[in-house]
Amino acid sequence: MSMNKTTGITLLLLSAAANVLADVKLPAVLSDNMVLQQQSSARVWGWADPGEKVVVQGSWAKSAAQSVKAGQDGMWKTEINTPKAGGPFTITVKGNNTIELKNILIGEVWVCSGQSNMEFRLTHATNGKKEVEQANYPQIRFFNVSGAATAQPAEDVKGKWSQCTPKTAGRILAVPYFFAKKIHKEINVPIGLVCPVMGATPARAWTPGKTLIENNMYTNEVKMISDPETIAKAKAKYEADMKVWQVAAAKAKAEGTTEPRRPRGLPRIGARYPSALFNGMISPLTSSTIKGVIWYQGENDVTGLVWYKPLFPNLIKSWRDAWGLGDFPFYHVQLPPYNYGNSNSALFREVQMQSLSINNVGIAVTLDVGDFKDIHPPHKKEVGERLALWALAKDYGQKDLVYSGPIYKSMKVEGEKIRLSFDHTGTGLIAKDGTLTNFMIAAADKKFVPAKATITGKTIVVSSDKVAKPTAVRYAFDNAGVPSLFNKEGLPASSFRTDSW
């Protein structure tokens, strides 16, 4: 082969490689069939060659193309103004190559995250087969994020946008589906559900490492996967320990004695590791524009209440900081009753209720739709719809809607009785099956006994002939959490206590 011919082929190959490298690429969540947040400066981002010019244009506004240059790291970001809900539209992204995103809807985008009860599919919910057959809502779109735990924040996730139809609904998650369905029916706009979920995972795995370190939580674990100096020291120590172990192991084998324990290496990054799921499943999504978050998690943290109490508020704050969209709605599910053994889940539910002191946080009480023997109760319709009530009332203009069950507010001792007052009584309080049950009362000796409870207007009067000087009341304050108190709108009260013993 002649030199000129060889040189020509080489140049051709180099040119082809350059063109491949120059192709604009988008993250998985920006793809066909997606939903973009309406009436917002919706973020669009991706990768290209450093310095490459990228133009982004939505078909709803041909004169409003956005131009941006990729940075030295190849990353580019821009924003496009979105109209009121509607579609379908297309979005064109043009660099050295052109990408056209098709069948795009403009509507409301919610991130739906948590562990197995959020991961629970519509197929397995109560009446799941019928629900799937009737799930013909192509304006509801869902993006199931494939699970990944990583040591460092990932660039992207794996997933695919799907329209909700009977053919695809077997893959949609039950709580997000019922949440979206109710909102869609009420306000008639497209709903996008982005669902990073993974079963059997603790809150620490969903929290950024920076937040954990700042709050002195799991500091050593986080540094072992994020701090180069800590990693280098750990690796050097492991290599030195291995040399010592190899000598000792050889000696033990020669002498016929027990081999010493092998040194532990660097940590394995799994789904329970602090910050690992935030890195792998949440961080890559934080460039997107969303309406808010719904969250169902906690089963793996019931036994670690001392950690969860400060961790959960920081998780909420850290997600809001990561997205940089202000105090967006964060609505979560209170754990239903379940036999957690020696751990009292009522204490956990109490901590979950305390999150209501945080701006724009809501909670769906599920005391009446749990199963003491099943940690994955199938009654997911009630859960999703109760989350939707918060959104409809707080975010979508239905200000007169009763969106919560009774929430304990205050108590007053009246002789041998205690009167309880509540927020969110709706049009009145009612007793399930006609009788209030599962109330306990105690004097200063802290010995609780079953109590008689009677509804009086929008208050409840509690007493027992065994307690002459009552000081405290508890309701459904155990793992069983048997409910009896509701408002007339059918929403249950949370378990609660008036004491802090």
Write structural notes for this entry.
The chain is of the alpha/beta class and 501 residues long. Helices cover 27% and strands 26% of the residues. The protein contains 11 helices and 23 strands. The chain has helices at 3-22, 116-119, 128-133, 174-187, 209-214, 219-226, 228-255, 276-282, 305-323, 345-354, 380-394, and strands at residues 35-37, 41-47, 53-58, 66-69, 75-81, 86-94, 98-114, 137-145, 161-164, 191-196, 292-296, 330-333, 361-364, 407-414, 417-423, 429-431, 439-442, 449-450, 452-456, 459-463, 472-475, 485-487, 496-497. Strand 3 and strand 4 form a beta hairpin. The model is unreliable at 5-20 (pLDDT under 50).
Largest sheet: 11 strands, mixed
Query: Roughly what is the average pLDDT, rounded to an integer?
Result: 95
**SSE class:** alpha/beta
For the termini, the CA-CA separation is 89 Å
Number of helices: 11
Number of strands: 23
What does this entry show, briefly?
This protein is an alpha/beta fold and 501 residues long. Helices cover 27% and strands 26% of the residues. It has helices spanning 3-22, 116-119, 128-133, 174-187, 209-214, 219-226, 228-255, 276-282, 305-323, 345-354, 380-394, and strands spanning 35-37, 41-47, 53-58, 66-69, 75-81, 86-94, 98-114, 137-145, 161-164, 191-196, 292-296, 330-333, 361-364, 407-414, 417-423, 429-431, 439-442, 449-450, 452-456, 459-463, 472-475, 485-487, 496-497.
